Amino acid sequence: VTGSLVGDDEIDLFVILDEQKELLDIILIGNKHVTIKEIEDDAHISELKAINQRKVDWLVKKIKNLYRKKDYHMVDIISKIEMEDGKAIVTIDIQENRPVHVKRVIFKGNEKVGDKKIRDFIQTKEDWIFSFLNKAGSFQEENIEVDKRIIEQVYKTYGYINAKVTDSKVEQDPSDNEFIVTFTINEGEKFKISEITVDGKEILNEDFLLAILPIQPKQIYSHRAMFDAIELLKDTWGDHGFIFADVQPNIEPNTEDNTVKIHFNTDLGNKVFLNRVSISGNLKT
Predict the structure, then answer these.
(1) Which long-range contacts does 123-132 make (Cβ < 8 Å, 24+ apart)?
(2) Mind listing the pLDDT tens digit for each residue in 144-176?
(3) What pTM, to 2 d.p., does this model score?
(4) Are 184 and 148 in contact (CB under 8 A)?
(5) Which residues pair with 167 in a beta bridge?
(6) How far apart are CA 167 and CA 253, in angstroms?
(7) N or C: which end of the chain has fewer CB within 10 A?
């Protein structure tokens, strides 16, 4: 869509149409590592009855994404539309080139949590001789954002509740085009638990609930232990008939002494009672 001004308050509007041509055939050349079936399953090319350049560009993008999932990040695709008896023949010429992997994963700023503790959890891993066992070395761009969140969760498990991944950079080594991924981390300070409170809803004794928790005052704050505490409280309330109880922690950090106060808020919901027990299949007893 384009337009041009006419006078002070009017405009001539032009709508340019990219007319679709009836599709006769789509010819794929050079696809060794991505099959026609994989392309069909993803792009449904058999359902295309008409074509234009916009749809061809869309199809090329789909095929490139399939190659990237298999680590062919340097694939080159040339497409063209030719006419035969008024119908379109689309030729897609694929030059796969070689696959490209993650050569190095670098962490910067992690003085208090070692590289190995982080590597064990993230999805982006370095290529090695047995990469086929766990897909190590595969570079998938969408995993970078996921890994940033994972790294922050790992730090929270070790008590660094304010840790942030401040930057992630992906580069290709000019000598071999292999990927180098760098995560920059601001660790912050380690926090301890100063106080824990639990609302017993005048049903359960707070001291009893505090005693069964896997976290206690003076311990290092752990995100994983918090998750375990929430699940344990849900199970405990379930044992007393509140099987839909929702437990949410309220965490109050104190940056002056690097401590946190934790209060577990509970929405019990309705109490559930057993109505009837039915047994089937007991022919002998």
Answers:
(1) 123/147, 123/150, 124/181, 126/102, 127/101, 127/102, 127/103, 127/178, 131/101
(2) 999 999 999 999 999 999 999 999 999 999 999
(3) 0.80
(4) no
(5) 184
(6) 25
(7) C
